[in-house]
Write a structure and sequence with these properties.
two-stranded antiparallel ribbon; 153 residues; flat; 3-stranded mixed sheet; 5 helices; 5 strands
Length: 153
Amino acid sequence: FRVIDYKTGRDSKIDVSAANRLDGGRAVQLALYARAIRDRERAEGRPAPVVSALYWFCTTRGNFRQRQMVAGDDTDAALDDVVAGIDAGVRAGCFPQVPGAYQDHWGTWENCTYCEYDGLCPTGRDVLAETKSTDPALAAHRALQADQPGDEE
């Protein structure tokens, strides 16, 4: 099976690999598509297939790049781990601000660019996020991000 998710924006450079825990939970979409196919095959009595899934940034803005994963048992295990971590965080009430780097061009933070609530958040959200980053209540969020390149514990 092959799943292609066409993207018209810029290449986000996410790491869709199971080894990277689906980019610390930021890249679960392809793994979910693959899981649906694999579960359907299992339900029909067939062995779970290996599924090729990719984001295709199909415009000049995305440089026509592809981010591909080959989903198998390791991807299912990574997805289970990430979803369990997200579930634990939600149940614990863990909803941290993660604004990312400030983008001068957009006049807001990297992860807030397309959020319809951007104007409601405080202007010092990066300072607040940093101040709260070591709070024990955010342990579930930090666990998802552990061992991610560029993310500090």
